[in-house]
Amino acid sequence: MTKRQRLRKMLLIISLLCFPVTLYYFSPALIINAGLAGIINGSFLVFVMMFLFSIPFGRLFCACLCPAGGLQECAFAVNERSPKQGWRLRMKYVIWAVWLTAVICCYLAGGGIMTVDFFFATEHGISVSSIQSYLIYYGIVFLILIPALLCGKRAFCHYFCWMAPFMTLGIKLRRFLHLPGLHIRAKRPEQCVSCGKCEKVCPMSIAILEEVRNGQIGSSECIQCGVCIDNCPCGVLSYEIRGEQGGNHGIGKKTGLCDSGAAKPRRTDGLRD
Ligand code: SF4
Ligand code: SF4
Ligand code: SF4
After folding, report:
1. Which among 2, 236, 255, 257 is the best mutation to test ligand 3's pocket, defined by most ligand atoms within 8 Å of the CB?
2. Whose CA is nearest to atom 1 of ligand 1?
3. Which residue has the CA at smallest separation from atom 4 of ligand 2?
């Protein structure tokens, strides 16, 4: 494992250990209570920060800082399958749209914003401070963990997360405004030997080979974790900060061998060749 992935995993573990403290700052329910009281609470500000952070950095928060991401990566030890995708990926946007409408209605019903209280409904800033909040904590932990255990890698992120759409929106805004941002770029696509290793290790089960043809990972599901970069034997992928680009870059035009000498192996994992 590379130093970068060690650091990423360490940050995820620290974030997971802090989850009993930070739980309410990611809460989709507390923001509704706060809205009815006309208060901007911690989760309101965290969601705004996620949106703003995603404009230059995409979904790096999901890769390195999200406790729910860390929890689901622990579940890789039990279920490392790729969850089914297609229409299921849209479920989170439906959930988000309904929830966001409810949040806006609650702020309107509460008479608008009157004050800011980042620590709203916490005890000295700590979320799990009573038996009731302890039960809520475990409810949320199981809500996140069960899809990952039953359906596969980071299934909760794919299907249900109410925070991911804020970041997708930030990425779309960056693209619309042609702002520079963090990308995973196929810097040497002609070196790709289609070994499929990147797809196998990707925690978000992205069809990376297809994306390599376009010169960059453009999927809104990509969390910019860099696992594909660190596992590619041919150095095809890299991080880059810049604007958008596209085009067919011709995978494996050369010889089936990359400069590092990695030959095209037989696929045994059921992924596309
Ligand atoms: S998609 Fe949601 S749950 Fe998954 S890592 Fe990102 S913020 Fe956390
Ligand atoms: S495509 Fe690469 S950077 Fe994006 S989620 Fe997958 S492994 Fe991480
Ligand atoms: S050579 Fe690199 S980019 Fe191409 S399939 Fe293998 S791991 Fe992925």
Report:
1. 236
2. 157
3. 222
What's the pLDDT score for residue 259?
63
Q: How far apart are CA 44 and CA 48, in angstroms?
A: 6
Residue 127, Cβ density class (10 Å: 0-12 exposed, 13-18 middle, ≥19 buried):
buried
What is the whole-number distance in angstroms between the Cα of residue 66 and the centre of ligand 1? Answer: 6
The pair of three-digit structure tokens given for residue 165, joined into one six-digit string: 């759409």
**Nearest one of 208, 76, 71 to 153, comparing CA atoms:** 76
Instruction: Give the domains, in start order, of the chain with CATH numbers.
Output: 3-172 (no CATH), 180-273 (3.30.70)
Instruction: Check if 79 has its Cβ closer than 6 Å to any atom of ligand 3.
Output: no
Distances, alpha carbon 217 to alpha carbons 31, 151, 221, 228, in Å: 33, 24, 10, 10
187 band by pLDDT with thresholds 50, 70 and 90: confident
Distance CA 67, CA 240 (A): 26
- The 10s digit of each residue's pLDDT in 206-246 is 999 988 887 778 899 999 999 999 999 999 999 998 776 54
Ligand 3 binding pocket mutation candidate from 184, 229, 232 (most atoms within 8 A of CB) = 232
Radius of gyration of the chain (CA): 20
> Are the C-beta atoms of residues 224 and 195 closer than 8 Å to each other?
no
Q: Answer whether residue 250 shows pLDDT above 60.
A: no
For residue 227, which atom of ligand 2 is closest to its CA?
7
Arithmetic mean of pLDDT, 202-207: 94
Which ligand has its closest atom nearest to the C-alpha of 183? 2
Which tokens sit at 119? 């620590």
